[in-house]
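ok, trying the design again with the full structure, not the truncated one.
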């Protein structure tokens, strides 16, 4: 089922969309707009999945052990030394 909706495009958007149709990339202007909406939906869903994954990671990290300031400093210094050694410094 499709729903008709009125959509306003800037002159640049309209020209670009019509060129896509004229070049045979899409059968109609409506198909271009539909694809654009599909892309925005996919992007939004992927962003939401990323946010949910990040929230889950933060929550797991919150429940895990924390390093003391001294332990953190030691690990950072060890990482720096390892990178320097990799460059022969």
């Amino acid at each position: 089922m499709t729903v008709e909706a009125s959509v306003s495009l800037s002159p640049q958007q309209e020209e670009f969309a019509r060129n896509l149709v004229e070049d045979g990339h899409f059968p109609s202007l409506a198909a271009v707009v539909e694809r654009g909406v599909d892309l925005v939906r996919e992007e939004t869903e992927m962003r939401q999945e990323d946010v949910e994954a990040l929230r889950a990671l933060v929550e797991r990290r919150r429940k895990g052990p924390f390093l003391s300031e001294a332990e953190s400093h030691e690990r950072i210094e060890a990482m720096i030394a390892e990178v320097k050694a990799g460059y022969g410094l």
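Keeping the full-length input from now on. The mean pLDDT is 95.
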